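User: Okay, second chain of the day. Same drill as before: sequence in, structure tokens out.
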Amino acid sequence: MKKGLKIVIIVSAACLLGLAILAIFGMNGERKRQLTCGGVNVVFADGYNFVTSEDIEGYLSQEYGAYIGQRLDSVDLAKVERILDNKSAILKTEAYTTPDGMLNVKVFQREPVIRFQKGGNGFYADEKGFLFPLQSNYTSQVPIIDGDVPLTFESGYKGEPVTQKEKDWLRDIISLTNYMKNSKTWSENISQISVRPGGDLVMIPRQGKETFIFGHPDGFEEKFSKMEKYYTTILPEKGEGYYSTVNLKYNGQIICRK
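Assistant: Same drill. Structure tokens below.
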């Protein structure tokens, strides 16, 4: 076979292959344009149940409008994500469509680390200090702090604390509860944390009649060390129930009162 003819055959074959590929893509594109959205498939990326699949469908029906029956390639995925990402218990979502005609939504929920109870208002805070309301569908088993909580929030509030002072306090509280969570001793033995007027934290153990005054949520490693000394040295000597309050908030001191 002559060299020129061979080149012509190769080029022709390549052109035919290219045309075939374009035809396939064209058919797929036309098929996609003809597809309509048949429904929504919700996938949760975590084990929380703050929102349900029915909630997601309800949010989209109310705020997006009619998406079922809409041409699949015209579904506004960015709008879907904006609507859902605005919900307080949702951290982020990923929306995409699939050739079976479904709108798919992957949901990442917020992970609470603390629950606050202040009067009639209850709120969660996540690791980054984002506050969001309690959810009727699900209650997360995290430390509860009640009393005179120095955070400003109204019913339904979501977002960061209002002032820098409040942000600093919340950051310290999150560090404190993380420390407790990572310590088997304190995570199991402290049943309640309350905030007194003036800001002192009071810790109530699961056993015994003592309450421990912690002061503000700083220097907590030393304060827990002093609490441990109370249990290992003072309590065995005086006996259970001898003291009612143990003040740990002053440097280098353990002040016990009957």
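DSSP finds six helices and twelve strands in the chain.

User: Thanks, on to the next one.
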